[in-house]
Large ribosomal subunit protein uL29c (Chloropicon primus), 155 residues
Amino acid sequence: MRGQVGMALGRNVGCARPVRRAAPFTTGRRTVAARAATTDMGALRKLSDAQLDAQVKESKTEIIKLEMKKASRQEFKPHEIKVHKKKVAQLLTVKREREIEQGVSKRESRRAEKNAALDKYKKQLQQANIVIQRPKSTKLRWQKREAARAAASEK
């Protein structure tokens, strides 16, 4: 009996009514709007370096806001995270293309970026009148202790 049921099911699988499929980009979903919202690379290449940096910063903060909404279970449009991530990638690509045109290697680029962030941090500390001192090395401390012990033992 099991064999007959299986065969009956097997025969009916091919006889199912055809599935209607929607034409691409005609659905009422919001992803259509997301695809239209993405900017073309030509428009991004016309922006200045400062504008590129500002847009990268803006998109990254928007991603963080959306992630916070997601974590706190507030309403948000999940496709917007993808849109902003793509925009950041496009902006950084344009920025890197300009560096390649100038002959800047990847290592030099990252080092310059790191040094710029460090300089910005130092300026912020300086404006706030905060002085950060490095801890003295342990080697110097041990040398002072040994010198003090030697001086104490001589007396």
Notes: DSSP finds seven helices and no strands in the chain.
